[in-house]
């Protein structure tokens, strides 16, 4: 068991029960998965290959390509063309990546304007403009210098925005 999972089970759950008065243990919100995403605005094989490789270096898990569902005339993208790549992290890998994000990546970002937060009812998305804050990508700058639009989405099973804020603030990511 990862120490963040242990922290959630022993401390955060009790805080949530005391704050929101849940009738059932199954209704207590939890962090379900983390989605890591790189988006490319154009269909270039070099950018797509470097983004998939960067996902694999960052998370030690293989990513998958995302394809466009609709054609976009402004970006010159046909339906079915690859437009980015994403990766779902669950269970232990989720907590390992989450720990790394809190301890290494967020403290390295000095200018907080490089991070944009987007709240939804059950998820929080961080848009990071530059992915070179990871040491693996920084070492290979020439290969990964053109990667932009790095997104990290924390998906929970919360019902309200207040629950989401309390849960994520308990994990110290707000």
Question: How is the topology of this model organized?
Answer:
Blueprint: H1 3-20, E1 31-39, H2 45-59, E2 64-67, E3 82-89, H3 91-108, E4 115-119, E5 123-128, H4 135-139, H5 141-144, E6 150-156, H6 161-170
Antiparallel strand pairs: 1-3, 1-6, 2-3, 4-5, 5-6
Plain-language structure description:
The structure is a single chain. The chain is of the alpha+beta class and 174 residues long. It has one domain: 50s Ribosomal Protein L5, Chain: A, CATH 3.30.1440.10. 40% of the residues lie in helices and 22% in strands. It has six helices and six strands. It has a six-stranded antiparallel beta sheet. β4 and β5 form a beta hairpin. The longest helix has 18 residues. It is globular, with a radius of gyration of 18 Å. The protein starts with a helix and ends with a helix. The model has no long low-confidence stretch (mean pLDDT 82).
Helix content: 40-55%
**What is the number of domains?**
1
Query: What portion of the residues fall into strands of 2 or more residues?
Result: 15-25%
| C-alpha termini separation | 24 Å
Mean pLDDT across residues? 82
Q: What name does the CATH topology carry? A: 50s Ribosomal Protein L5, Chain: A
Spatial order of strands in the largest sheet: 2-3-1-6-5-4
Number of strands: 6
Instruction: Give the name of the CATH architecture.
Output: 2-Layer Sandwich
Helix vs. strand class: alpha+beta
The CATH class assignment is Alpha Beta
Main beta-sheet annotation: 6 strands, antiparallel
Order of helices and strands: HEHEEHEEHHEH
Q: Unreliable segments (pLDDT under 50, ≥5 consecutive)?
A: none
Write down the overall geometry: globular
CA gyration radius, whole angstroms: 18 Å
CATH H-tier superfamily: Ribosomal protein L5
Supply the number of helical segments. 6
């Amino acid at each position: 068991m990862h120490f963040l999972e242990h922290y959630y089970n022993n401390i955060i759950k009790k805080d949530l029960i005391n704050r929101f008065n849940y009738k059932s243990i199954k209704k207590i919100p939890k962090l379900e998965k983390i989605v890591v995403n790189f988006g490319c605005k154009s269909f270039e094989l070099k950018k797509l290959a470097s983004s998939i490789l960067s996902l694999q270096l960052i998370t030690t898990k293989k990513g998958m390509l995302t394809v466009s569902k609709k054609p976009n005339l402004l970006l010159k993208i046909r339906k079915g063309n690859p437009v980015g790549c994403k990766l779902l992290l669950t269970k232990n890998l989720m907590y390992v990546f989450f720990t790394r994000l809190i301890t290494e990546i967020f403290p390295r970002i000095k200018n907080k304007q490089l991070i944009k937060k987007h709240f939804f009812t059950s998820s929080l998305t961080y848009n990071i403009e530059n992915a070179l804050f990871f040491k693996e990508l920084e070492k290979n700058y020439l290969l990964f210098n053109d990667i932009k639009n790095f997104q990290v989405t924390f998906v929970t099973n919360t019902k309200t925005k207040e629950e989401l804020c309390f849960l994520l603030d308990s994990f110290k990511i707000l």
